[in-house]
Amino acid sequence: MKTIDTVSTIVERVHSTEDLEKIETEISVWINDGGSFHSTMLSPDQVEQLTTTIDNNQRVNLSRPEVVLNLNKLRQALHQLPVLELVCPFVPDPTFKQEVIRQLQKSVTGNFVAKFSTKTELIAGMQLIFKGKFKDYSLLKQLEDRKAEIFGEVLR
Amino acid sequence: MNNQENLLNTIQAGGGTSFWDKDQSIFILVLILILITINLVLLLVYYFEYKRNQKLLGISKKFADAERLYKRSQESANQLLNQTIEESQLIIERAYKEANNIIQQMRKTTEKIDSKTEAEMTKLVADGKVNLQKQIDSFSQEFKAGLTQLGQSQTDEVKKIQVQIYRETLTSLQEMIANLKNQSMAVQAEAGAQAQEELKKMQAEVIEYKNKELGKINNNLYDILIKSAKIVLGEGLDINVKKETVLKAIENAKRDGLIS
Q1: Does A91 touch chain B if contact means CB atoms closer than 8 Å?
Q2: Neighbouring residues of B128: CB distance < 8 A, sequence distance ≥ 6
Q3: What is the C-alpha to C-alpha distance for residues B220 and B216, in angstroms, rounded to an integer?
Q4: How far is CA B54 from CA B40, B77, B87, in A?
Q5: Which residue of A has its CA nearest to B255?
Q6: What is the pLDDT of residues B163-184, one digit of tens each?
Q7: How many whole angstroms separate alpha carbon A53 and alpha carbon A70?
Q8: How many CA atoms lie within 13 A of B82 on its CB side?
């Protein structure tokens, strides 16, 4: 498998900024510490594809610079992924995050990275920011939109 | 007169040179002279009084003087007339008395007096008195008529002066009133405009203040509402409910084309 294909498959597996950060941390650690490259995010085959090559029908370890080159290609590809920011009224647990990403993957075309953040004042609902567009689906926004209606009742 | 002429002819004829005839002629002559004198005196009086009145009757250009002069002249004229009449009366009485005295004296000096002559002399004196009275009456009437005319003309002049003064005063007053009205209207208009501007400013300030205060109230109420909602909804809402709202928001985003 070519490196590019490996990178693509790896990118497909990265769905969140946590995943990105994880991979980035693993790459940084390997660069600093050396040794063999290991990743919890990448499958063994993917790691093998990034760190070895076939030479005379044998898998040979790539040199360090070659590995660094491959990893930088991976980094570059990962950083080019569009970020879909989700602002939640609570701190989502990993399970919920996965569920949200699954739901998003049904709707979003192409690869993306989901970025989760928290604002409790939203009360409920969510804010979405994707490809330069912002949309507020929070309960706070609904309250603000209906302020005139609400206060009209109050002040009447 | 015929009796007089007869007497004079008798005297001229030289006949009857009795002492009585001579005296009679002299008596008659004296009487005639007296009558003439009285008339002359009266005429002189008339003349002088008229002249005096002419001088008195001057019309002042000023209204007050003209009025005073008019009144004064009227009074003076009346006074003079009365004096003249009185004096004339006195003169007549004096003349009459004198004539009577002469007759009485002549009676004393003569033993016999022709009754006819005496009657004629008496009648002569009486006639003279009547004539004088008539002249005086006629003079007083004419004088009064002249005074009345003069008085009317004076009144017209005074009235003219009065009217002129009244007109001038009225015009001045009307001008003053018009000016005052214009000034007061201008002042009122200016004041009114200023008042309108002030009112508008005040209204604008009141509206601004009201909106500001209402805005504060609104914001305060909103803050309270949000806090209440946060407390009630945020803490009261189950986590699963919140998760459902998030998933619901994803569906809405897909519906709105935000994620595609």
Answers
A1: no
A2: B31, B35, B95, B96, B99
A3: 6
A4: 21, 10, 20
A5: A107
A6: 555 556 556 555 655 665 565 4
A7: 11
A8: 6
Query: Any alpha helices (H) in chain B, and if so which ranges?
Result: 2-13, 19-56, 63-109, 115-229, 239-256
Q: Strands, E, within chain A: which ranges?
A: 52-55, 58-61, 83-88, 113-118, 127-130, 133-136
pLDDT, position A126: 93
Q: What DSSP designation does A124 have?
A: S
Rounded Cα distance between B74 and B238, Å, is 125
pLDDT of residue A84: 92
Flag whether residue B237 sits within 8 Å of chain A, measured between CB atoms. yes
Nearest to B140 by CA among B93, B95, B82: B82
Cβ atoms < 10 Å from Cβ of A152: 10
Interval A35-76: pLDDT, tens: 777 788 888 888 888 888 888 888 888 888 888 888 888 888
Taking only the tens place, the pLDDT of each residue in A91-143 is 999 999 999 999 998 888 888 899 999 998 888 899 999 999 999 999 888 87
Length of chain A: 156
User: For residue B100, how many other CB atoms are within 10 A of its CB?
Assistant: 12
Task: Find out whether A6 and A14 touch, Cβ atoms under 8 Å.
Answer: no
Name every chain B residue with its beta carbon within 8 A of the beta carbon of A126: 245-246, 249-250
Sign of CA dihedral B215, B219, B221, B222: positive
Do A67 and A51 contact (CB within 8 A), yes or no? yes
B253 touches chain A (CB under 8 A): yes
